[in-house]
Amino acid sequence: MDIPWGYIQRHFDWLGHVVEGVCIAAVVALLFMVIAPRRLALIIGLAFAIGHFHGREKRDFEISAKLPPPHLEGYEMWKWSWDQATDFWPVALVLACVIVALLPKRRRRPGSSDD
Q1: Which contacts (CB < 8 Å, 24+ apart) does range 5-14 have?
Q2: DSSP 8-state code for residue 113
Q3: What confidence tens digit (pLDDT) does each residue in 79-110 have?
C-alpha cells in the first residue's frame, strides 16, 4: 500500500499540527503537575502550546517577508500566508476550546446574586 504523503501534506497538514500541539501541551502539563494541580497544569500546558505555535508561525512569516528587527509587523497575522495561518489557527482554536472545557463551571446557587 502506497501512502499518498503529498496529498496528506497538502490537505491535512493542519491536523498534524493539532496533534503536535496536544503532545507539546501534554509534556508541559506533566512537568507542571509536579508543582500545580492537574487541571491547572493542563491549562498551562495548553496555553504554552498555543504560544509556541504563534511564535513559530510569526517567525516563519518574519523570515519569508524578510522583516528587519524588531519584527513588530510579524504580529499582523492577517498578512501571514495561507500555510502559516492554517498551521496556527486550527491549533489555537482546538487547544483554546480544551482550555475552556477545563475551566471550572460556574454554578449559581439559588438565592445568590452576581451583582
Answers
A1: 13/83, 13/86, 13/87, 14/86, 14/87, 14/90, 14/91
A2: -
A3: 888 888 888 888 889 999 999 999 887 766 66
Q: SS3 for 39?
A: helix
Q: Is the omega angle on the peptide bond into residue 37 within 30 degrees of 0, that is, cis?
A: no
**Rounded Cα gap, residues 7 and 21, in angstroms:** 21
Which pLDDT score, from 0 to 100, does residue 114 have?
53
- CA 81, CA 101: separation in Å to the nearest integer? 30
Q: Give CA 110 to chain center in angstroms.
A: 37
- Residue 83 is assigned to a structural domain of this protein: yes
Query: What is the total count of domains within the chain?
Result: 1
Residue type, 11: H
Residue 52 domain boundaries: 31-102
Q: Which three cell numbers stand for residue 89?
A: 489557527
State which H helix or E strand residue 37 sits in: none
Is there a domain that residue 14 lies in?
A: no
Kindly state whether residue 3 falls inside one of the protein's structural domains: no
